[in-house]
Amino acid sequence: MSRHGVLPEADFYCPIPWEPLEIATPAALEAAIAEGSDALLNRIFELIVKELEYAAPDWSEAIGLRQLTPDSIADAWFADRLTHDPFQWAQRNLQEVERNKREHHTVPWRYAILRLHEAIETVVPQFNDADSRRFRQGLARVFIDNYAAIPPESIRRLLALHRAGILRILTLGEDYELQREPDRTLIVHHRQRCEFDVFIDARGQKALKTRDLPFPSLRQQLLACGDDIPDVGDDYTLQAPETVRGRVAFGALPWLMHDRPFVQGLTASAEIGSAMARAVSQQAAGRRRRLWYIE
Questions:
Q1: Cα–Cα distance, 93 to 107 (Å, whole number)
Q2: CB-CB contact of 76 with 27 (8 Å)
Q3: Structural domain boundaries enclosing 229
Q4: Is residue 6 part of a domain?
Q5: Which phi and psi (to 5°) does residue 171 adopt?
Q6: What is the predicted pLDDT for the residue at 287?
Q7: Which pLDDT value is given to residue 57?
Q8: How many CA atoms lie within 13 A of 263 on its CB side?
Q9: Which pLDDT belongs to residue 228?
Q10: Cα(first)–Cα(last) distance of the chain, in Å?
Q11: What top-level branch of life does the organism fall under (predicted)?
Q12: What does the pLDDT read at residue 292?
């Protein structure tokens, strides 16, 4: 089941380590931030547009990039895929990915989006509430679809299961209900009711707050400090209360997603683990930026 009825695409060939961006550089992003939070997302999107036009001018013109906004780019990104059968699209995409790998060819717009997502993540904590919502509903979906590509072997397995008549895709849309019961899971959508003995929820983690912590004593201590979101240092150790400062490493991803929406990747996890390991021998140099939270 999928909200939009699409399958993830296959991992694509690209140079590693990643090449630096040409337009959306750290200096350009800092300059955009320095102008203030009002209309920050629009200024950042303009840098994204220029980066994509530089890297992939033909694709940018074909998709009408100059006419798009942070709110409409996700619809344009998925538009072609949504008009095709998802398994036929997956087969075409798999063939393209395998051909590009053999030929050592990098699709420039895919590669640009991949590099942009980590650069733009550094700006996310500076968005005001309105831009934060816009980002998550639009541009973030493009980044997530791009970096969440899966191994080609997984695509082959999905296609084989479909050909065997075992696998199909059900499009839920945004208006559906999920009810978990002790012995079954119920899904209600489009006036239909589906019942499953076994249900795997792979929608990904959601940002959580201090009140959601499963450790009662720690939860109460943090709430007593007035921290709706755990306050952690740059080494991911808790900074409050005083009794646990620097002694408890806090790398639980759902509590880090407020200002790092793409933190679930392997690279980010490795960075967090390294920072926590350093905390064993040295104190945090500073705190991470205060986090925003959107219900």
A1: 12
A2: no
A3: 210-278
A4: no
A5: -85, 120
A6: 54
A7: 98
A8: 19
A9: 86
A10: 24
A11: Bacteria
A12: 42
Name 101's Cβ contacts closer than 8 Å, sequence gap at least 6. Answer: 13
Do both 88 and 177 map to the same domain? no
Residues 120, 47 within the same domain: yes
Q: What is the pLDDT of residue 290?
A: 46
Report helix, strand or coil for 181: strand
Sites in the chain below the pLDDT cut of 70: 264-265, 283-295
Q: What is the pLDDT of residue 294?
A: 39
**DSSP string covering 213-224:** -S-HHHHHHHHH
Q: How many structural domains are present in the chain?
A: 3
143 with 73: CB under 8 angstroms? no
Query: Is 100 within the bounds of a domain?
Result: yes
* Whether residues 244 and 188 fall in one domain: no
Q: How many Å apart are CA 28 and CA 255, to the nearest integer?
A: 29
Residues 145 and 191 in one domain: no
Q: Are residues 110 and 181 in the same domain?
A: no
CA-to-CA separations, 280 to 6, 56, 246, 256, 276, in angstroms, rounded: 44, 45, 9, 20, 7
d(CA 210, CA 57): 45
Beta bridge partner(s), residue 176: 189
How far is 173 from 231, CA to CA, in rounded Å? 36
Partners of 224 in the β-ladder: none
Residue 249 is predicted with a pLDDT of: 86
b/e 193-215 (16+ beta carbons within 10 angstroms → b): eeeeeeeeeeeeeebbbbeebee
CA-based radius of gyration for the chain: 21
The secondary structure of residue 90, as a DSSP letter, is H
Q: How far apart are CA 8 and CA 11, in angstroms?
A: 9
